[in-house]
Fold this protein.
Amino acid sequence: MSITASHELTPETNLGRPGRLIFLNGTSSSGKSSIAAELLGSLDGTWFHLAIDQFHRIRARREMPDEAFLSVFQRTVLGFHRAVAGMASAGNDVVVDHILGEQWRLTDCLTVFDGLPVLFVGVRCALPELERRERDRGNRTIGRAAVQFPIVHEHGVYDVEVESDRHTPAECAAQIRDRLEAGPPTAFDQLRARGASTAGDAPTVHPAR
């Protein structure tokens, strides 16, 4: 594309429909980012990878009391959900990389993503392998995955689940692509129908700085 002073919006820019979301949910170190990279390299069209970790990394580093930090942390997560929804509302396809470590995160996603096509993917990995990855990578908080492990999949409903300790990222991505092509997703609608947004709070995972 040539560089000019300005470009008018083209008719093709407005697709007249929202973009699709592939929502990867799993613990820290479960392999979501590697699977997302495979999806971006193999799916047709232009996809974006938006990860909650990206939003935490771009936040200013300030020393503050734990209570104050918790509020900032939670607003970051809420903003992440709305940024994803904004991208999809503009017609962009997005691979979402998230950790539903608390009930309110799922509740908010069910609300904010209402009207958007969401393929909900459970990224599972055995706890011993998660702990090995934490140790080997050297840039993870040891023990975080163990705390998240019994919580992130408590809601129990997905459109497709993959096992990152048994399959390569490319194989997991292929399973997700097959489900994407098989028909409309239903997991988020099922969760709304059964009242997940009014369910009792799950145990809280306190954020790490």
About this structure: Residues 196-209 have pLDDT under 50 and may be disordered. The first strand starts at residue 21 and ends at 25.
